[in-house]
Amino acid sequence: MIKNFFLFVILWCATIGLMAQSTSSNGLKYNNFRNRLKEEMLIYSGNGMDKGTHLPMERKTVVNGKTVGYWADGIWWQGHYLAVLATEYRRLQLEGRDTEATLQELKAALDVYDRLDFAAERCWGTDTFTSINGFYIRDDVSNTEGKRLNLDEVQSDYHFYCGKTDAFRHGPSQDQAWGTYLGIALIQKFVDDTAVLRHSADIVKRLVRGMQYTDEKGKPHWQIMNPVTGKIVQKEGDIQWLQYAHGTIGTMLTGENMHFGNSNKNRWKNIWEILQDNVLADRDGHFTWYGVMALAAVMNDGGSRSCYDWMIKKCDKIVKRRPDLKQTIIFPHLPLINVVLHGYTGKSLLPKEIYTDYLSLAPENGANAQMINGEEIRTDAPWNSLSLFCPWHNYELGTFNMLDYMLLYNLVELVYP
Length: 417
What we know:
With 417 residues, the protein is α+β, with helices and mostly antiparallel strands. It has 14 helices and eight strands. The protein is globular and about 60 Å long. Residues 1-22 have low confidence and may be disordered.
């Protein structure tokens, strides 16, 4: 009996040692990816009003001997960057570590929204708009700024579309807002700085108001209008189907009533519920899936069941429907965001090991894909795509920004302390 007891203690200690080693290894990878983000994957100046700064690039690769940095859907990525910083801030707090550097980085990242709003109208040829009005560009990175990261070339929405007055792709879109909602909801949950909380609420107010338009007959529409050209930025009716969710989240994150027109009426609430119930109707839903689930996570709306349980069920169905994506969980961060924002009182929280396995499988140098001797060499699943945020992007080449790893790591540490 005594021998068995000592054997049990030895095995238990060995198991705890392996677990600690695994956690430590994942933490070291986090630090590595964070340092690389600040040094190689964004232009870090400490001042978010400096052109091109504090915006993470999505990937970097070498093309014909030239190092190329890619920025696309910049505000969508920016929202997830805010989420990383907010959860890092809280994790450091709980660990009794200094949070000042993270707070200053977060302030600079929020300033980017003001900078891109101030600069937007110039891309359509006018300087007459001198105030922040909710119409923004997605990035402002050109080859000039790219030289600060030793890039030979920058490919960005700004590079391709700014100055082309007939273009609309560089302007706002509701999917840019989805990512921002996630980040700002986490800021308001975890960051105890009055100026940051006020600024983040102002950003949400501008983004939501920027999707609301009253026509010449006084009729309200959920549409994004370019104030310079007077043209619709997204196709007509694209936003209206989610207007209840946008208005509800705007109200949650600003403390003001952000509904518009009939967005708070039962008709649009019912349409939102239908979208939730039928979010998988489109086999290749991509951003439709992500948008509905990200909005639900912030709203804490799972219909008749808990939001977390609803999301896990939907994620599991997507895995079975899209085995080509090679994921065991789709959007693994979204259910965890719901838990840290709103708590969980059920009994079916997924075991921590599912998430730590994801983290452990990430290569120490980060996810990437390269062409070597005419053959595409890609990181093994689940890190085989541009990001866990958009796993259907499994064809891009380069070194990826690893915001997905960083956010998942912080969330796991917060949900499973």
